[in-house]
Amino acid sequence: MELHLNFKLFLIFAFVAAITVNSCDNQNHSSDYKKEIEEYREQVKDFFKHSEDSPVVDMTEKIIPFYYEPKLEYKVDAFLEEFAEKDTLEMLTTQSDVRKMIRFGELNFKLKDEKFSLTAYINIEHPESFFIPFHDETNGSETYEAGRYIDLEITNNKKYLLDFNLAYNPYCYYNAKYSCPIVPDDNYLKTKIEAGEKSHNESH
Which residues pair with residue 149 across a beta bridge? Predict the structure, then answer.
């Protein structure tokens, strides 16, 4: 399971680096952003279809990632407020085992003029990135009922680019053999996040 996770993190971090550079060069980069995120998604789909590490076993079912259309309004600045005490906890998974996580801090951001926050965790097995699991009001109808994830590369900055267009389904959505961390109750967003991966049987 390590290979597919590292591959996906590599794609995400490379994508974020690319759009950061391009946004500095062009303030009106909506069309460029859409093109770049579509290219990123094609790489993910190719991985699902052809890689030995794909979570999808039976490709005759055509279960590959399906997405909302990219929307710039779901790419927001988030400001990290570190917790004074960074507790290490055991996050329960879908296979009833646990993952050791550091509860690092709170990401504060605005979405459609509303204030929200999400707790950023660090998976001890992957300390190079923040792990941000979340629920929202699309779960169970338009998106996976158990929630979705976002990964952020850790930097020395307090300001992060939180892009919900990169939100993805846990691999247990595609294959029940995977053990996926269960989203904590405090990472519930009381709004619809119509961005990122969605349920394959939903058209939106």
Answer: 133, 168
